Amino acid sequence: MTALNYDNEADGMAPLPQSSQVKHVPQGAGAAYWGPGELMTFLITGDETNGAYFMAEVSVAPGGGTPPHIHHREDESFHVLEGTLTIQVGGDTITASAGDFAFLPRGISHSFKNGGGSYAKALVLTTPAGLEGFFSEVFEPARDRSATPPTASKELIGRALAAGPRYGLELLP
Q1: Does residue 47 form part of some domain?
Q2: What average pLDDT score do residues 109-133 get?
Q3: Cystine design at 70: which of 55, 100, 169, 170 (Cβ 3.0–4.6 Å)?
Q4: What pLDDT does residue 173 have?
Q5: Stated pTM of the model
Q6: Residue 40 domain-assigned?
Q7: What are the CA-CA distances from residue 135 to residues 6, 54, 154, 166, 169 (Å)?
Q8: 2 in a domain, yes or no?
Q9: Which ranges of 28-171 would DSSP assign to H, the alpha helix?
Q10: What does the pLDDT read at residue 119?
């Protein structure tokens, strides 16, 4: 990862705050975490955006995805890069394929699943930031990014249920 601080003083502008640094995350870099059926790679966090947003790349194995849940603090957006994700939002079903974008406002029940036979990959943006704390607390660090994603263990579910309320995340039955 590379962080560069642009110096606007040369242009007569005020210097940028420390969190307004350019950031480059080469492919395969960035903090990565294993969730049930998925690999989440942090691209930029709230610490780096003054809390404005968090963005991750999510690689979802066939059959992987999330259970129904509600974000009470942030909106969530998906831009599918590869494969297809079936997104349940409210009472609707969105089938999002490569190139598609879906915006899910806070306060609405949603989940997603990869029902296809190959990995699906998406950029996930949450605004404002903060949800990355949940993932780093609940998911396991991915030391080997080529491993098979784990299934939901009782330990992970327990951590998720305990941590969810601290992050405004309501996990539904």
Answers
A1: yes
A2: 96
A3: 170
A4: 83
A5: 0.86
A6: yes
A7: 30, 11, 16, 12, 11
A8: no
A9: 131-138, 154-163
A10: 95
